[in-house]
């Protein structure tokens, strides 16, 4: 008597995901303290892209990895399509279409940095109160020459 068994990882047939962030892509490098204003659009945008990869041939882990990679690209593409540096308060929805391709939709407010300037002593509170502290922020020193 022969017993034949075939095992394979389960394949994904649909996918859904939502996420919320305050600003994306994240930027938090301080080399010399520089301050800029953020000009945020009054109207929100909706931007969508379809990822042409049928997920039915992928494992759940492969779908998660694809979605994780592609959502950052789509947010950046949304900013570029709207002549913005960042998307403020993006909401990201990921679903599948009828062909089992991922569809990534970004909702948010396009924003652009403007009025770059060197930080002054009056700006010290901004750097000290940021969520991410670096040694530059903690050892804040300004020389007005």
Walkthrough of the structure:
The protein is of the alpha+beta class and 145 residues long. Helices cover 21% and strands 36% of the residues. It contains three helices and six strands. Strands 1, 2, 3, 4, 5 and 6 form a six-stranded antiparallel beta sheet that branches. A hairpin with a 4-residue loop joins β5 (86-96) and β6 (101-118).
Structural class designation: alpha+beta
The profile of the biggest β sheet is:
6 strands, antiparallel
- Total number of helical segments? 3
Radius of gyration: 22 Å
Poorly predicted tracts of residues: 133-145
Distance from N terminus to C terminus (CA atoms, Å) equals 91 Å
The percentage helix is 10-25%
List its traits.
single chain; 145 residues; alpha+beta; 6-stranded antiparallel β-sheet; elongated; disordered C terminus
How does the SSE layout of this entry go?
Elements: E1 17-20, E2 23-24, E3 34-40, E4 45-54, H1 60-81, E5 86-96, E6 101-118, H2 124-128, H3 135-138
Antiparallel strand pairs: 1-5, 2-5, 3-6, 4-6, 5-6
């Amino acid at each position: 008597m022969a017993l034949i068994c075939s095992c394979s990882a389960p394949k994904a047939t649909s996918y859904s995901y939502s996420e919320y962030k305050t600003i994306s892509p994240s930027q938090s490098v301080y080399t010399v303290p520089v301050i800029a204003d953020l000009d945020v659009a009054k109207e929100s945008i909706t931007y969508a892209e379809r990822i042409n990869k049928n997920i039915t041939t992928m494992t759940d882990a492969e779908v998660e990895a694809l979605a994780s990679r592609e959502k950052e690209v789509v947010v950046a593409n949304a900013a570029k399509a709207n002549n913005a540096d960042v998307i403020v308060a993006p909401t990201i929805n990921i679903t599948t279409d009828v062909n089992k391709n991922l569809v990534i939709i970004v909702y948010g407010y396009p924003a652009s940095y403007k009025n770059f300037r060197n930080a002054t002593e009056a700006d010290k509170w901004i750097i000290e109160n940021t969520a991410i502290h670096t040694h530059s922020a903690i050892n804040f020193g300004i020389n007005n020459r």
